[in-house]
Structure formats: structure tokens, C-alpha cells
Fold:
Amino acid sequence: MSEKSLCRTWATLCVAVLLTAAHAGGQGAAPAAGTNWVAPAGTAVSIDRRTGRVSMALPIQPIDGSTEEAVRFEEWRLHPYAGSGPYPATREEPDSLPTYTIYRPADLAKTPKLPILLWANGGCRNTSVEFTRFLGEIASQGYLVIAVGRSNVPFMIINFNGGLGVIGSTKPYDGPAPLTVNDANILLKGLDWAVAENDRPGSPLQGKLDTSQVAAAGQSCGGPQAFRVARDPRIKTIVSLNSGFPVKQAGAATSSADAWTADKLTVPAALFEGGPADLGYAGGEQTFAALPAMLPALKVEMALLGHTGAYPMPDIRWTKAVVAWLDWRLKGSASAMAVFAGPNCRMCSDAEVWIETRNIP
Structure:
């Protein structure tokens, strides 16, 4: 069978097999049509011969449950991350919001009003410890981040063969909080709290928030969670990381007239993927193609990061691109667009970054 026939048979899965990412019609540093992206030496590609499912593991990809990860997470539980932005960040778990973690600038007297980012974790986990540095960095750029979960909830390891585990423990977890939260409405409950705190006399957040500028974002399993709340009129943009949104399947009957799929989205969307080795790669590609044609949309691929490689450091290019999108959509910063779009696009000269935009000046 020829490579082209294989592609037609396996559709998007062949992208991972051939290690090819030809992005036509977008702006930026996407390879020209017909060129190949070659994964670094040591990359492992596996194919399930029964299902045709392809997986690819980069040699630099962090592994859930590693000793290094356990040490890092324990350190992050104990210490917030100030970030590199103009407003050094802190982390708090307020009693008035008992199942969330807040990331925000430490000195609110020195900040302009803060837009709000609602955050859903990878694996739909009930802790944001994995994203401590990523969310701290965003907060240091002048944002209030409301993340699902608390730092004392164990990080659940996901075994893609169907098993689950708890990091740092060989005993079943029997704590009062669940390991995962699948209800997307928990994001809106966090927003309700922020709106109330912005109005409450005596609150540290009184008058400090721009409650008219709200984004919903999530990584992996958290991406669809964020998408499900995008119907709320308070949400002005949505960000998907290593993930995608539900897509209407051709010829498939919908379960209801209100089926919420990517083609119905009405707010601008940004998708950030870690290249063909990312478990969310195919879903992100399908989502971007399915978004309404007139909707402002961005897709950024960083091929060497895989599914979770952006967060341990974090990779500052990834974080800056996310912040640039938020600055454009929530702060009205026209200059922020130049990070990923326009004739002076700053990320477009990076050969490791592939960018596609739609309806962005």
C-alpha cells in the first residue's frame, strides 16, 4: 500500500505515522506543503494493529508518576510561583471558595483591573498542581486565575490502558474531595464567586477585577470542560490546550437540538497543541477545521512539546503565546497580536512553531 493510500485509510492518524504536518493556508512558520516534520532521535512510534491507533512518545516527554515529577509536585505544593511578569504572583486557597485555587498578583495595589481566567485541569483532575508555574506565570501578567481543585488533592496518574493510580501512594485515596471533577459548571461557580468578591466591601478583590472580560481555558480533558461553559454570555474567549472540542460528525444524528459542538461556537477561540506526539493533536486539528468560518481563531503547534511538555518548565514561548491571545481578547492589546499574526509576527520565525490563523488582522 502506498503512503497516500495509507493516509486515505487512516485519515488524521496517518499524520503521526508519517510524522508530517503540512499546514496550508495559515500564517507563520508552518512547513510548506509536502515537507515533513521529523521527530527527534529516540521518538517511539507504536501502532495498534487491531484498531489502527497510533501513539508517539517524544524522548523528552515528561512521564506521569516519575520520581522527578513527584519531587517537583511536592515542591510546587509548598511554594507558589511568582512568574516573570510585571506583577509577581501568589497562590491562595480562600475559605470562601473551598474547592478552588486562586493565582493572582500578590500586590493588588499596583495592578490595573484584572481580567479573569477560568481554568480546568488536565485529566479533569481536582488539583492544579501540575500547572503551578504555568498559571503563576499567567497571573504575573495581570490576571486572576480561578483553577479547579486544591493542592492537597493527590495528583491522579492516568494509565491509558484503563487503570488509575495516585502519585506518591500505594494505598487507595479515601480523602473527602474527589480526584476528578467532570462537571463543567464548576468553572462558572468560580466566576460567580469572583463577581461577588469584586462587589463585596472588605474583600481584597473589591473593585480589582474586570468582570466583563472573562476567558475559559483547559488542558486535555479540561478543554471540553471549558468549551461547555462558553455558552455563558460572560465568557469572551476560549482557550484549548492539548485538546479539542466536540465536533459534529457527518451523517450522525444528534441526541438533541441543543447539541453543543465546535461549529456552534460564537466567541473567538485559540488552540495550542504539542505537535503530532500530542494526544490532543488530532482533536485539535478537527476542532480548528470545524470552527465557524467567520470566527477569529488561532492554532499554535509546538512540535517538540507533546501532550504535557509545556508545563514542567514551563516553556516560555508557549506561555507567552497564550498570554498574547488573552491580552488581545481581554485587554484589547493590538500589539499582542504581533506575537502570532501580522507582517511582524514574532513567533513566525521560530521553526519549531507552526501557526494558523483565521480572521485575525
Remarks:
- Helices lie at 3-10, 13-18, 67-78, 132-140, 185-199, 222-228, 281-290, 316-331.
- The first helix runs from residue 3 to 10.
- The CA atoms of residues 16 and 276 lie 5 Å apart.
